[in-house]
Amino acid sequence: MAHSATVISATRSPDAKPFVAADVGGTHARIALMRAETPGKVAMLDFRQYACADSPDLSDIVAQFLRDSGAREADRAVIAIAGVLHGDELVNTNLPWPVSLSRMRHALSLRDLQLVNDFEAMAYATPYIDPAESVRLTGPATPLARGATLVIGPGTGLGAALWTPSRGAGVPPQVLATEAGHAALAPGNERELAIVGHFLRRWPHVDNERALSGPGLLNLYRCLCELDAAVPALASPAEVAQAAQNGADIQAEEALQIFCAMLGSLIGDLVLTFGAQAVYLAGGMPAHIKPFLLRSRFVERYLNKGVLRSVLEQVPVSVIDHGRYGLLGAAAWYLDRGENE
Fold first, then answer.
1. pLDDT reading at 3 higher than 80
2. What is the 3-state composition of the chain as percent helix, strand, coil, each rounded to the nearest 5?
3. Where in the chain is the domain with CATH 3.30.420.40?
């Protein structure tokens, strides 16, 4: 599957030999064959998606892509992936297998292999997001001021990163990767207090991912069933989301309402913390629950910040389809700095 060239503002470019860019989450791995055409432009030559659970490790997925695409000459790769690289090992609880940088380099015989946090890569893609491909939840059509952009997304986990524009000639844009998913979950009403109290009896630290992720939605549903003395009838996040949107299960519908409300509250907190001027909501879940999200209490809770409500009203929040942006961001990161680190 060939794709047309895409403009990417890269300060450096490697040679024109194709390289692999991947965006790996807990459920799917999206992989593309990229080639730098001219300074500032990259072509996506091939794109494929794989189910992570179908492979014994990440090296196997990349090797399968190289076979499927016929790109045996590609000897460099950049992989956007959830987690934090601690020495040689990736720290991530949402992947179906461990990831070792040295073992991958050896297994794939690559000249160069780089890992970048998946939402750091997403943040690098923000200058290339087409507004026509997004759905605005709140705020003006365009930011009132040019400044930092927050990218956040619930999926298998919860990722977040901040993009800040160049502050002068010769100073490239900067990206701050965060672990906001592991910060403490903050309740906003008595029902949510009861949920957090229930979670604390199970886990000593209740972070945002316990509620604001695919597994978190299932946690919310099961908790509400227990609080309401109801028998859980649904066994997966997808089932909960579907039943909620169909109005087929009372606890499922409330679980998704609470999910959207707490997500809005968290995003409002992060906008105020970082002084963000725009927000892109990505990840696997928002695109699948978009109609529900639009009529939920997301915006109400996002704006519920007391005297600073008027500030948040000026910050646009939009939903984007993760899709190719993780790959474009990984390629942009690599072309700018990945191969030189």
1. no
2. 40, 25, 35
3. 5-124+324-340
**Which region holds residue 283: left if phi is over 0, alpha if psi is between -120 and 50, else beta?**
left
What fold characterizes domain 5-124+324-340?
Answer: Nucleotidyltransferase; domain 5 (3.30.420)
Structure tokens at 288: 């699948």
The mean per-residue pLDDT over the stretch 31-35 comes to: 90
User: Bridge-partner residues for 46, per DSSP?
Assistant: 33
Relative orientation angle of helices 190-200 and 214-227, to the nearest 10 degrees: 100
**195, 187 contact by CB (below 8 A):** yes
Residue written as tokens 């072509």? Answer: 43
143-315 — its CATH code?
3.40.367.20
Note the pTM of the prediction, 2 decimals: 0.84
Check residue 229 and give left, alpha or beta (phi > 0: left; psi -120 to 50: alpha).
left
Q: Write down the mean pLDDT value for the chain.
A: 88
Residue 265 backbone phi and psi in degrees, to 5: -65, -45
Give 248-266 pLDDT, tens digit per residue: 999 999 999 999 999 999 9
The ranges of the chain annotated as CATH 3.40.367.20 are 143-315
Q: What is the pLDDT of residues 90-118, one digit of tens each?
A: 877 667 788 888 888 888 888 888 888 88
The candidate with the shortest Cα–Cα distance to 280, out of 308, 248, 319, is: 319
